[in-house]
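for the recovery benchmark. tokens below, seq after
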């Protein structure tokens, strides 16, 4: 973890370090990420200051309106993903990517822990060249810093379509905190995130 903290402290793709130059008005943008089970990724980003919404769903496949059961087969081409909407006056892609590469393992191909299959691949779905460049920049910096012992296998795929998952998948951790998967898999990721990004957590109401 120490290597990751040091590397992330040095990496910047742009404006977040210069908060005084950011506009105070709401300026929303979206990014779609896949980092294993979307319950895990959703739970983390819901705690990041500046994120206004996180929706669990599917991206990267070719058929329309996939179901969870279809995607779980690993044969659809879809990845479990989250679509993150964020206020650029409070956060940006730089920080969002730092969180992404902290809370999941980008070196395991088509797998996160016990979750295995192409639907669990590490992927960034970029919607424009700016997002692609930002992703390439942080990946290059992580490689140069030798943060991971194994090669980064995160793919960069052009965003085409995002399909929202069934209702019971949304806010899953918040609604099922005591379930074994939530306690054994999601909670440790949240603990890690909250430790490293403790100054960037949303204020609890």
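predicted aa per position
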């Amino acid at each position: 973890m120490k290597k990751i903290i040091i590397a992330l402290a040095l990496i910047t793709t742009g404006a977040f370090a210069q908060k005084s130059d950011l506009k105070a008005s709401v300026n929303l943008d979206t990014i779609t990420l896949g980092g294993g089970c979307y319950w895990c990724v959703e739970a983390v980003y819901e705690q990041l200051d500046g994120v206004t919404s996180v929706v669990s769903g599917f991206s990267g496949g070719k058929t329309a309106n996939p179901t969870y059961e279809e995607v779980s087969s690993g044969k659809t081409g879809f990845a479990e993903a989250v679509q993150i909407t964020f206020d650029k006056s409070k956060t940006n892609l730089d920080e969002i990517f730092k969180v992404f590469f902290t809370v999941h393992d980008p070196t395991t191909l088509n797998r996160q822990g016990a979750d295995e299959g192409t639907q669990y691949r590490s992927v960034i779905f970029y919607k424009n060249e700016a997002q692609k460049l930002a992703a390439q920049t942080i990946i290059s910096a992580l490689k140069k810093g030798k943060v991971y012992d194994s090669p980064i296998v995160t793919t960069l795929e052009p965003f085409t379509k995002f399909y929202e998952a069934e209702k019971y998948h949304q806010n899953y951790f918040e609604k099922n905190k005591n379930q074994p998967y939530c306690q054994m898999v999601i909670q440790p990721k949240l603990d890690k995130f909250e430790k490293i990004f403790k100054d960037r957590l949303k204020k609890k109401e």
